Amino acid sequence: MDVSFSSFCQEVFSNPVMAVTVALTLGVIFVNGWTDAPNAIATCVSTRCMKVRTAIWMSAAFNFLGVLVMTKINSSVASTISNMVDFGGETTDALMALCAALFSIVVYSVAASMFGIPTSESHSLIAGLSGAAIAVQGGIGGINFAEWVKVLYGLVLSTVLGFAFGWIAVKSVELVCRNMDRRKTLGFFRGAQAAGGAAMAFMHGAQDGQKFMGVFMLGIFLANGQGDVVSFEIPIWLMILCSAVMA
Q: Which residues of 183-221 are buried (b: 16+ CB within 10 A; e: fewer)?
């Protein structure tokens, strides 16, 4: 299948179903950028080591780079998400289920942000795709457990390791700096917080950008009547498009 940018544009303008799918996918990526960016810069802003506007620009720039650079190096996360569910052989029903999942993510995330509730579009994406697959298949036959188990590993490990490394990092800093004058270390820790925020934004783009690019490619294939594609290469124009929308 031709996934060049010119072919994609032609398809979007001539195929209303494709246009709706693309609009919903880009909408989810946009919402993902605005809800997860605060996670990366919250500490930098709350401790006043960075001004709000500067922190936002930093987060946007490193989200952009994260999506673009890491997808170019390794796009395996995109493949995992794309192959996590099976919507069945009927591509029309599959595309309807995919659009329903994307629409639910946008509605939920926007509503949550209005009430100041932190959200994870990764969890929403996984739940939305799984729920849609179960609905269209009429049972758990729509879940590809070989790929789903990778998601579970990620959810469990990120919680356990995040807690453990956070504890170790704090105790290590306390040990190393116990005899230092705190006022003299301020400059270093301000820079370290900014660097940590930039790294968080970069890795957010690297992970979440790929997830939604996998969904983007899945939508393109389904809109063209191809429901059996299990491997694909993400074109550079799609990396740039998704990077820019998230940023």
A: eeeeeeeeeebbebbbebbbebbbbbbbbbbbbbbbbbb
